[in-house]
Structure formats: structure tokens, C-alpha cells
Write a structure and sequence with these properties.
heterotetramer; A mainly alpha (about 220); B mainly alpha (about 300); C alpha/beta (about 290); D alpha/beta (about 325); B: about 300 residues; mainly alpha; two-stranded antiparallel sheet; 9 helices; 2 strands; D: about 325 residues; alpha/beta; 2 domains; six-stranded parallel beta sheet; 6 strands; elongated
Chain lengths: ~220, ~300, ~290, ~325
């Protein structure tokens, strides 16, 4: 029963959602609305599991005086500090004249936003480094890729340093590559991926794929 | 409007909670410090980066948790059930579920079951091998895979195939001819015909490259080779766009550092600009560390 | 191989950093020619009758705001100038602060009011499931708005919007990845035959060419598309009666800034290409020497 | 709408005009004035009460796929041989592991950074089992850094199982399956650290990758390891193709498990997808030919291509 009930649930829910996709009846839409709401509730709850994991590992490291423990303590402080402010605000215990999320927004704008965007901005440096150290035209495939990449890079920017004809030429080459060759390649990849999804989804909905419920 | 202008005129406060206002002084220094700390990782892993990293994980996790709590728990469970409970007692009452008039009692029970399943998911926190979380996970897997399966087959397979079916030859070729004067090269029927043929051949060849269980003779081998060429040019195009995106983000960060060096954040003096001071501070500390370590190894 | 990797990569980091910071300080700018994908994006909005209702989905976060927020602001300018009404949703949790900030700053300048000209429904978790829910029944998905928790039926604009996107003429998304434009195409374009427009990050843009123009009427890709669209909106902005000049000035400043950025972008691309060429030359020369 | 239909029938009209009218009725149910467009459609109890007729093509596609899949699986289980083409990157796996053994250095396996709900991660675990078997046979250490604690349990199981498959349960070293961090870039820095310090001779990266792919591939290249990478996430493929020795591209990734395990069920799935691809190519070419030959018609006199297009919803 340990395995059978979950598989039955997957199959039943999968078939109901599939039915709702094709059936225009009001009942099927109600089933769809309810089940998709369930999924998003579970999605939200599952996030708590992630937090639980993070807290457990960090507390373990703090109590074991791992060399990085002060950082882990800082992590916990930020996590619970922000969580408390947010919860107090959501439930109206603290209020600001600048709206019901003003405290959260302040932290978000001043801390979360610069950190997240800077993390991604680091990649500009890594691309430059990889361009020099790792991107080798060692095969026909890699050569084509790098050449097409260079042409697209040139076609994406204004080229005020060159005569206008040069800029127009790269923009045209880029437009051609994107609109025709890239469109063909993208279509093939998209259709292939859709077939992969269809195959895997169908195996799951029909109860043939059970590896995600490993014992 | 007038309030907005007034805010811009007013002196910058140390801490301003107004989300539309200019950045406050503490906020500006904080943003600057965190940005530069992350950039310091380019030199090497160091305590500043570690501070930034752990703050990031803490705040980020809390931020998402709050969002999911409000939109995934409070609203669909508490508020939804409260709404149903309001009409439940009335005779002949119904509750609209996606346009379908459901019996309020049934709607209530359904959502209560969802809440119980949610709690079952949480048991994983205490006993990792429990059977209980599998039920809600199974529901999620079923719902997600069925939605993906139907939606993607429709849009990415059936409609994608339909969208690809375009005439090879533009319809106006009879009127204007294959290579009319005064038209951009890309708009001439001859060019368009060749380009359309490239799409058709490209799609066929690239799809054929993904044929796995077909005997690979000379024909399929050659077709697949052309497919590889198409795929590589496609990857090249994506590569070009990735470079575009990453550099754009870097420019944005630099832009913000420049914005933060406004005198407003530096107590009205050009000498106390946060980016300059913090760069000196971080770089200085790291150099000091490096020198100390060198001395340590020398002795 | 040895020659190329011997160089400490921090020199390359330094070159990139100096390039961007130096150019930013110098402040050279240059206008861009407009591509047809962007002009189609612009024209589709232009063709809507005044008073139409559109749905605008904010599917981005701070990391991608640099690329998408200018287009988001310009789109709001464009919609508000044309008197088009907007239902705002978000499938990324970090997006709603941007929605509120942008609308509160721009919409009143065109004399538009909350509730009748735009509504803010907020974030919905669940990725493409949330999109499917929004399509099936916007009332069940969002019983209240995200601004003050007003019941959705008390918002005048929402009385014209029904289930299955009834009453909504167009769906726009500012999309930074999953879930985003591709999921919207599956859940709304495919299911309800909605006309769609998108602004995307550069990384996502190549996916879109395959959907244009059958399933996607137009798009602004990356910083390039953003700059081109900003040029179009800024050029036509003067035709509107405007009650507050400040947001418009900001738009023009953003346009100018974007044109400036595209020049830095150009040098960045040239640096990367130069590094690829140099790296390969050293590599092949090194190999020859070994042979 | 009844009138034009009759009028059209009086004149000599091509057969597809009637078909088009019937199909357009299916898509819309009843016409705006409530008249019935075609028998069985739009009437109470008609076909469109049961199914959204615009989605009929999708349903048919799914049913055809299901039929082909079940048939191919049954055939494969009955012993029919389904050939599968060589995938160079996978053959290179053995080479990479062999080289590590010669050099006396470990093999690094990165299973992507997504959670277990992502199909690609589950796939990666199946490949990991095969890799663990190989390394156990050769007696080479296998390091598996993971980003998620649930994935860690799966990875431990896969490694243990792989060592059992090789008949060397003692080859499993628990400490080599390492949870690093849930934060993307912290995880990435951790893996880069392993590449630089423990100098694996082979880096195998298979699964769902995001922005970190570039950093991993570049660091691995600089450390001089043989690199085999594969993902169905197309955005990261450029970096893998440019910086790795072998790359498993897009849909190839989903064929990997069938290639390695030769499990009849999986082979049947691949076979069915292949047949669908051929059908799609044929339908697509037919559509292009019709579009070119007949062009687009009007509402009242549709072309053969218009009618054909309706078959796709």
C-alpha cells in the first residue's frame, strides 16, 4: 500500500487534469481549479521543508563551531530577522505609513536586490575569462558556434566606431541568422523537448514511471 | 504628484521607508557595501564575500518564504475557507469554483483535505522516511505532469508544427517578380524563398539528428550532419544573446554604483562617496590580509 | 594550452572592469535602428482601441530588472498614453514591488486612476499552474487585489473581465525565464488563442523567434530590444496631454541612458570577441610548437 | 450560415469547402446567430459538449503517441531489438574514467543543480548509477557534489547501487557524495574548489544546469580534465559545447538512460518519439507544399491549405 496509494493519486490527478484540458464542461473546470490550487498550496508548504533543511544544517555547524560558524549565525539572524518582520507586517502587528509591506520592501530593495543582481553580473567577467581560456575552435561544431556567436554579438549593438554600412551588414547577418537558421534550430529543439515532456508526462500519468517514488 | 516632487527636494533621510522615494543614506551604504563585497570574489574568496553570500541566502530564503506563506497558504487556505464558511450555513447556497456552482460543504471539505495533505508533507521535517509526504507529492507530480503534457503538446508540438507551415514562395511574386528594384534584399521574393527553404531543410535535418532508433545509413548520416550545423549556429546565436544579457547586468551594477556616489549619500561632500570609500576599505583590508599571510609564511 | 592558461584570469577580470567603468564615466551614446520584432510590439499596442483591457504579467526579479524594467516602464507609458486599461499579475514573487512602483509613478501623470484604469492583483505561486488558474478563472485565483485587499468585484475595471480571458484583448509579459513567455504561450496562447507580446532577457530571446509571428505578435529582446522600444515610445510620448512632466522626463533620461549603455555593450562584445580570437591564436600556435 | 452553404452546393465547389465548413463549425460550436453549422456539432448532446473541439488535434496526437509507446514497449519486452544510435559523449564516458584510473586521479560527477522534481535530475541519478559501476570496476574514486539534500539521498543510493552492480560494495565511500550548499553560486564555488584542489582527471556534468554551467566548464577546462557534459536545457549548451570535450545535446539527454540501461520500457518510449518525429516531418512538408501550391483562401472560398491548417487546431 505504501507505493500503491501514491501511484493511484498521481494517476487519478493526472487523468483529471488531462480531462479538464480537453473538456469544456463547468464541472471539469471546477476540478481543474481545485486541483491546481492544491498543487500551489503544496508547492508553498514544500518550501518550508527547504527552510527546515537550511536551518538544521546551519545550526549543526554553529554548535560544532565549524570554521564558518559566524557566517552561519549571520545567515540565521538574517533569515529569522526578515521572517519576523514580514510575519508581523503581514498580520498587521507593525504598520508603516508607506504601505503594508514597507519594511519588507526596504530590506528587499537595499539588501536582496543588489546582492542578486551582482551575483549575476559576475558572469560577465567569467564569460570574458572563458572566452580567452576555454572557448576553442577545436572542431567544426565549436568553430561554427563561436563564429555565429561573434556575428550575433556584433549585430546586437550599434557600431558607431565603424562606417554605417558595416553596422548595417552585421545587423542584417544577425537578423538572417536569428530569423531563419536559429528559428529552425529552435523549432527542432522545442519540438524535441515537447516530445520528451509528452513521453515522460504520459509515463507518469499512466503510472508507468515510478522512479520518483523510490523506496 | 506634488508629494513626489516634494520628496525629491527634501534632504535625504538616514532611513526612509518610502518605497518610491530616493534611497536613504544607510540603505545606500548598505547596497554599496554588498555590491562591492560580491565583486571582491573576483579577486578571491574572502570574508567580505562570505558575509555577502550568507546575508543573501538568509534574506532570499526569508523573502520567498513570506511570499509563499501569503499567496500559497493564507489566501488559498485561510481566506478561501473563510469565504466558503460565510455562505455555508445558508440553505440552497452555492460556492463558485471556476464558474461551477459547487455545494459549499463539499468545497470546504475539499480544501480541508488539501490542508491536511499539506501537513502530511511537513512530516518530512521530523521523519525523513515517512510515507505521509508521498501523498501530496504524488498529487503534485500528477497535476504538474498532466498540465505540462497537455499544454506543451498543444503549443510546442501541434501548434508549432502548424506555425512552421508557411508558403515557400511569397504570394506577391507574380506581381513584383523575383528580384524587384528598390526593395531591401531581405524582402525580395528570391531571398525569402531561399530563406524559407533554409528553415524547412533546417527543421527536417535538426529533427532527424534526434532520431535515435533509425538505422544510420549514408542519407540519414548526411541529413543529421546538416542538422548539427543548424543546431550549432542556433547555439551560437544563443551564446551571443547570453553575452549581451550578462554584460547588460554588469553595466547596470556599475550604473548603480555611480548613482550611489551622488553627494546626497555622502553627507554633501564629494570625499565621502560610498563606492569610493568602501572600495578603499575592502581593497585595503584584503591587501592587509595578504601582507600578513605573506609575513607569516616568510617567518 | 599552457600559454593561454598561464595568464592569471584576474587580469582579464580587470580589463573587463576597467572597460565598463571607464566607458560609463565617459558617457558616449548612440541611437539604434529599430528591428521589425520591436516595431511589431509597438504597433500591436498602437492598434488597440482606446479603453481596451490588457493583462500585463510581471515575470521577473531583481536580477533581471536591469534588462526588463525599462521596457516595463515604457510599456506602461505607452498603454497609459493610449488610454488602455491594465490588469497586472505576477508569477515571480519578487516582481510585485516593481509593478506598484512603476504604475504609481507613471499612470497618474496621464490622469489614470487605480481601479478603473489599472488593477494590481499581485503574485500567484505555482508557476505554470498559476497561469492556468488565471486563465480559467481570474476571480477564483484572485478574490482580492494586492493593493488594499479590495474584493475583486468592487474594482470597476474587473467587471469587464471574465473567465477564460474574456474581455482581455492582449497579454503582455515581461519575462525573465521560467515561468515566463513560453509557459504563457502554452497556458494562454495555446489554450485561449490570446494575442501575446513579450519583453525578454537577452538569454531568453533566441527561443522567441520560433514563435514569431504566429503565436507571438512581437517582442523586445534584451537590452537591444529595450533601447529600440524606448526610442519609439519616447518619440511618440510628446503627443499625449500629460499632467506631470516628471515621469516623462525620467523616460527620456532612461532612453538616453540605454543608448549610452549600448555603446559600452559594444565595447564589451568587442573585448569578448578579441579574447576568443587571441585565446585561439595562442592555443593553435602552442599546439604547432609542440608538434 | 445555412444559406451560403446551400448556395455553394449549387455551384460546383471543391470538396474541401464543405469539409472546411464542418471543421470551422467544430471549432466554434454554434454560429453567432445560434444556427447549427454541421450535424452533431453545436447541438445539445453534440460533440462539442464533450470536448473542446479546437483541442481535438492535441488529443489525437497524445492518443497516437500513447498507442505507439505501448506497442513499442510490448514489442521490446517481447524481445524485438530496437537499435539505438551511438552517442559519442556516452562512449567517451568510459574513456574518461579509464584515463582517470591511469593517472590515479578521481572522477567528478556533477548532477546539475535542480531538485528531484525536475525530470533531468532523476535521469541524472540513473546515469550516475552506471558511472558508479564503472568507477567501482576500475577502482577509481568518484566524487559527487550535490546542491540539494534530497538529491543527496538519491545520489548516495545510486552510488551504492552502482558499486553493488560492479560486485564491489566496499568501493562505496559515503564521504564522496557531498552536500555543498543550497545557494547556486556557493555550490558552484565549492565544485570549482574540488576541481582545483583534488584535480579530478574527468569531469562529468549531466543534469539541469543554469548560469553556473559556464563557470564549471571553464574551471574544468583550465584544470585540464576531460569533460563530458549533457543537458536538455538549451541555454547552457553553448558553454558546454565551447568548453567541454564531449557534449550530449538536448533531446539526446533523454535518450541516455535508454542507451545505457537498454530497459525495454525506455527504449519503447524513444522508439515511439522517433515515429512521431517522422510523422511530424511528413505532415510539416505536406503543409509547406500545400501552402506553396494553394496559398491562403478567404473565409467563403478557403484553399485546401486553410482546411489542412484547421486539422492542427
Amino acid at each position: 500500500m505504501k507505493r500503491e496509494i501514491p501511484i493511484a493519486l498521481t494517476v487519478i490527478c493526472g487523468l483529471l487534469i488531462t480531462w479538464a484540458f480537453f473538456s469544456p464542461s463547468e464541472l471539469s473546470q471546477a476540478v481543474n481549479v481545485e486541483l491546481t490550487a492544491w498543487a500551489s498550496i503544496f508547492f508553498a508548504v514544500a518550501f518550508l521543508l527547504g527552510i527546515g533543511n537550511l536551518v538544521r544544517i546551519s545550526l549543526k555547524q554553529i554548535s560544532a563551531r565549524h570554521p564558518d560558524w559566524p557566517y552561519k549565525a549571520l545567515l540565521m539572524l538574517m533569515l529569522f530577522g526578515y521572517l519576523s518582520i514580514g510575519l508581523l507586517e503581514i498580520h498587521g502587528v507593525i504598520e508603516s505609513e508607506y504601505g503594508d509591506k514597507a519594511y519588507q520592501d526596504w530590506i528587499y530593495e537595499r539588501i536582496f536586490k543588489p546582492l542578486q543582481s551582482t551575483m549575476f553580473a559576475l558572469l560577465a567577467f567569467y564569460i570574458a575569462s572563458a572566452a580567452f581560456r576555454a572557448f576553442r575552435a577545436r572542431s567544426m561544431e565549436a568553430t561554427l558556434l563561436l563564429t555565429a556567436g561573434a556575428l550575433v554579438m556584433l549585430g546586437q549593438v550599434p557600431l558607431p566606431i565603424a562606417p554605417p554600412e558595416v553596422g548595417a551588414f552585421f545587423a542584417r547577418v544577425q537578423g538572417f541568422l536569428m530569423a531563419y537558421v536559429n528559428a529552425a534550430g529552435q523549432s527542432a529543439i522545442i519540438m524535441g523537448a515537447a516530445l520528451g515532456t509528452l513521453a515522460t508526462g504520459l509515463r507518469i500519468v499512466l503510472g508507468l514511471e515510478r522512479s520518483y517514488l523510490s523506496e | 504628484m506634488s508629494s513626489m516632487l516634494a520628496l525629491q527636494d527634501a534632504a535625504t533621510p538616514f532611513v526612509s521607508l518610502d518605497p518610491n522615494g530616493p534611497v536613504d543614506i544607510i540603505g545606500a551604504w548598505l547596497m554599496c557595501f554588498l555590491t562591492l563585497s560580491v565583486f571582491s570574489f573576483l579577486y578571491k574568496d574572502n570574508p567580505f564575500y562570505k558575509v555577502a553570500e550568507h546575508v543573501f541566502v538568509g534574506v532570499g530564503t526569508a523573502y520567498f518564504a513570506l511570499q509563499y506563506y501569503k499567496e500559497g497558504i493564507l489566501e488559498p487556505v485561510r481566506d478561501h475557507m473563510y469565504d466558503i464558511a460565510e455562505v455555508m450555513g445558508e440553505p440552497g447556497a452555492s460556492f463558485s469554483l471556476g464558474g461551477y456552482d459547487a455545494d459549499p460543504t463539499i468545497a470546504f471539505i475539499l480544501r480541508a483535505v488539501a490542508a491536511i495533505f499539506g501537513l502530511m508533507l511537513l512530516t518530512r521535517l521530523f521523519s525523513p522516511n515517512s510515507w505521509a509526504p508521498r501523498w501530496p507529492l504524488a498529487v503534485m507530480v500528477g497535476v504538474y505532469s498532466a498540465l505540462k503534457l497537455t499544454g506543451e503538446t498543444q503549443s510546442k508540438l501541434v501548434l508549432q508544427t502548424k506555425g512552421l507551415m508557411k508558403p515557400l514562395v511569397p504570394e506577391n511574386v507574380g506581381e513584383v517578380g523575383w528580384f524587384p528594384d528598390g526593395v531591401a534584399l531581405e524582402s525580395t521574393p528570391l531571398f525569402l524563398t531561399i530563406a524559407n527553404a533554409i528553415v524547412v531543410i533546417g527543421v527536417i535535418c535538426a529533427l532527424s539528428h534526434f532520431l535515435f532508433t533509425w538505422k544510420r545509413g549514408r542519407t540519414l548520416g548526411a541529413v543529421s550532419r546538416v542538422g548539427i550545423i543548424v543546431l550549432m549556429i542556433t547555439f551560437g546565436s544563443m551564446f551571443g544573446f547570453t553575452v549581451l544579457g550578462r554584460i547588460a547586468l554588469l553595466i547596470e551594477r556599475v550604473n548603480e554604483l555611480f548613482d550611489l556616489s551622488e553627494p546626497d549619500y555622502a553627507f554633501g561632500t564629494p570625499f565621502l562617496s560610498p563606492p569610493v570609500i568602501l572600495t578603499v576599505l575592502i581593497a585595503g583590508t584584503l591587501t592587509l590580509f595578504a601582507l600578513q599571510r605573506k609575513e607569516g609564511t616568510d617567518s | 594550452m599552457a600559454q593561454a592558461t598561464d595568464l592569471d584570469r584576474r587580469w582579464i577580470f580587470l580589463a573587463m572592469g576597467v572597460l565598463v567603468v571607464g566607458l560609463f564615466a565617459s558617457g558616449v551614446s548612440s541611437p539604434m535602428p529599430v528591428s521589425r520584432y520591436v516595431s511589431d510590439y509597438y504597433d500591436t499596442i498602437e492598434a488597440l482601441p482606446e479603453g481596451s483591457v490588457v493583462m500585463l504579467s510581471a515575470d521577473f526579479d531583481p536580477a533581471s530588472a536591469a534588462e526588463l524594467f525599462p521596457t516595463y516602464q515604457a510599456t506602461i507609458h505607452h498603454l497609459m498614453r493610449r488610454g488602455i486599461r491594465v490588469v497586472n499579475v505576477a508569477t515571480w514573487p519578487a516582481a510585485p514591488p516593481y509593478t506598484r512602483k512603476a504604475f504609481d509613478a507613471i499612470a497618474p501623470a496621464y490622469g489614470r486612476e487605480y481601479g478603473t484604469d489599472w488593477v494590481e492583483l499581485g503574485f500567484k505561486p505555482g508557476d505554470d499552474v498559476a497561469m492556468a488558474q488565471i486563465g480559467q478563472s481570474i476571480r477564483t485565483t484572485y478574490p482580492r487585489d494586492d493593493r488594499d485587499g479590495t474584493a475583486i468585484d468592487q474594482l470597476p475595471l474587473m467587471s469587464e473581465v471574465g473567465d477564460s480571458f474574456e474581455g482581455i484583448e492582449l497579454l503582455l509579459t515581461m519575462s525573465a525565464g521560467y515561468p515566463g513567455i513560453l509557459e504563457w504561450i502554452a497556458q494562454a496562447g495555446g489554450r485561449y488563442d490570446m494575442t501575446m507580446l513579450a519583453a525578454t532577457t537577452a538569454v531568453q530571446t533566441p527561443d522567441l523567434f520560433a514563435y514569431y509571428p504566429t503565436q507571438l505578435a512581437g517582442f523586445c529582446g534584451g537590452a537591444t530590444g529595450a533601447t529600440q522600444y524606448l526610442q519609439l515610445v519616447a518619440n511618440s510620448a510628446g503627443t499625449a496631454t500629460i499632467m506631470d512632466q516628471a515621469p516623462l522626463d525620467e523616460l527620456l533620461a532612461v532612453k538616453e541612458k540605454n543608448q549610452k549603455r549600448m555603446v559600452i555593450q559594444m565595447w564589451g562584445h568587442l573585448l569578448i570577441i578579441a579574447l576568443i580570437v587571441l585565446g585561439n591564436v595562442l592555443y593553435f600556435r602552442g599546439r604547432k610548437a609542440v608538434a | 450560415m445555412i444559406q451560403p452553404l446551400l448556395a455553394l452546393q449549387d455551384a460546383v465547389t471543391p470538396w474541401w469547402v464543405d469539409l472546411n465548413l464542418w471543421l470551422s463549425g467544430m471549432g466554434r460550436g454554434t454560429d453567432a446567430d445560434g444556427s447549427v453549422l454541421a450535424p452533431g456539432i453545436g447541438t445539445p448532446g453534440g460533440l462539442d459538449d464533450w470536448i473542446d473541439t479546437g483541442k481535438l488535434p492535441t488529443l489525437i496526437a497524445i492518443l497516437i503517441y500513447a498507442f505507439l509507446m505501448l506497442r513499442s514497449q510490448a514489442k521490446a519486452k517481447a524481445g524485438a531489438e530496437i537499435p539505438i544510435r551511438r552517442i559519442a559523449g556516452l562512449d567517451a564516458l568510459d574513456e574518461a574514467i579509464g584515463r582517470s584510473t591511469e593517472m590515479g586521479r578521481p572522477v567528478l560527477y556533477v548532477p546539475g543543480i535542480d531538485e528531484i522534481k525536475e525530470i533531468q535530475t532523476i535521469y541524472s541519478m540513473m546515469i550516475l548509477r552506471h558511472v558508479a559501476r564503472k568507477t567501482a570496476e576500475y577502482g577509481t574514486p568518484l566524487i559527487v557534489p550535490v546542491k540539494d539534500s534530497v538529491v543527496m539521498t538519491f545520489a548516495e543510493e545510486a552510488c551504492k547501487q552502482g558499486c553493488l552492480d560492479a560486485g564491489r560494495p566496499d568501493a562505496f565511500i559515503a564521504d564522496n557524495v557531498r552536500y555543498l550548499s543550497n545557494e547556486q553560486f556557493a555550490y558552484c564555488a565549492g565544485v570549482a574548489g574540488i576541481m582545483n584542489r583534488e584535480k579530478p582527471a574527468a569531469n562529468i556534468m549531466l543534469g539541469m544546469f543554469f548560469a553556473e554551467s559556464l563557470i564549471l566548464a571553464e574551471t574544468g577546462y583550465a584544470s585540464g580534465a576531460i569533460q563530458v557534459a549533457g543537458t536538455a536545457k538549451q541555454h547552457q549548451l553553448p558553454f558546454f559545447v565551447a568548453a567541454c570535450d564531449y557534449t550530449i545535446i538536448g533531446e539526446e539527454y533523454f535518450a541516455v538512460t535508454a542507451y545505457l540501461t537498454r530497459e525495454p520500457g525506455l527504449l519503447g518510449t524513444i522508439r515511439a518519439a522517433d515515429i512521431i518525429k517522422v510523422i511530424v516531418i511528413i505532415l510539416f512538408v505536406l503543409g509547406v507544399i500545400l501552402a506553396t501550391a494553394t496559398g491562403n483562401g478567404t473565409e467563403t472560398s478557403p484553399s485546401l491549405f486553410d482546411v489542412y491548417g484547421r486539422l492542427f487546431g
